[in-house]
Design goal:
Layout (H helix, E strand, L loop, with lengths): L1 H9 L3 H7 L11 H14 L17
Length: about 60
């Protein structure tokens, strides 16, 4: 979120933003609460699971 805002409004990267305000390199660009909520939603929708199983094979009927 903040990354695109910084780029469009100020032409800055997150690293440039951190340097300007003397923030640590690992300073998050998104709040922990927002991250946790989005993570819970993704898990609820089943996103990030590897493999979706195989599709049923189509049969050709004559």
């Amino acid at each position: 979120m903040l990354k695109s805002y910084l780029r469009t409004k100020f032409g800055m990267t997150p690293d440039e933003y951190r340097a300007k305000w003397n923030l640590p390199k690992d300073y998050p660009m998104v709040s922990p609460n927002y991250t946790a909520r989005r993570s819970a939603l993704a898990k609820e929708f089943g996103l990030g699971k590897s493999g979706r199983g195989s599709r049923p094979k189509k049969t050709i009927s004559n």
